[in-house]
Amino acid sequence: MEKIKDENSKARILEAATALFARKGFDGTSIREICKSANVNLCMISYYWGGKQELYQGIIENLLEKQIEYSKSFLDLNRNPYDMSVAECTELLTGVMDKFVDFFYTNISSDLIVILLKEQQKPDFIVKSPVLDYIRKIVARILNKDVNDRIVIFKMLFMISQINSPRILPAFSLRILGQNEFGKEDIAIIKENVKLYINKILKEGGNHD
Length: 209
Prior knowledge:
The protein has 209 residues and is mainly alpha-helical. The chain is built from 10 helices and no strands.
């Protein structure tokens, strides 16, 4: 029971901190504000993270942990894409990206998007995601190129943008639709668009074994 209580406190802190950091920025947010919003004792942040900077980083780390845990049910990161055929990689990529649409529209809040966009502008910010690295390997295998090839990197970027652009650019999606959230029909359209882009990648691949 105590462990559940602690985990609930940790989740409340992350939620409160994400909202405050997104709205007021890192410097404009105090530890006291976060604890008050999360309804926890000040010592809880020291207990879990150590300080405000570590908590801020913990928000992104928590997202990556969720991403990895979510992926375990449908993705084997130890399987080498270069040992698979293009057809197998394409089927795998299509399935994985379909799942990632669900993940992005379920686990990533608007506040978290604000933080991620801010972090992206920092020159020293690097995303260390085993899952995204693996997806890039799949794309490289389909295109028959090195994983660090410029074309592979940009194709990967464009593919991810098919997923996140509606959320990142709500003025061109939700606002026009007159909605506050994305519905099932919207998600289905996004998934179909991702599939179309993956098929385009396959046609451009140099090896169709």
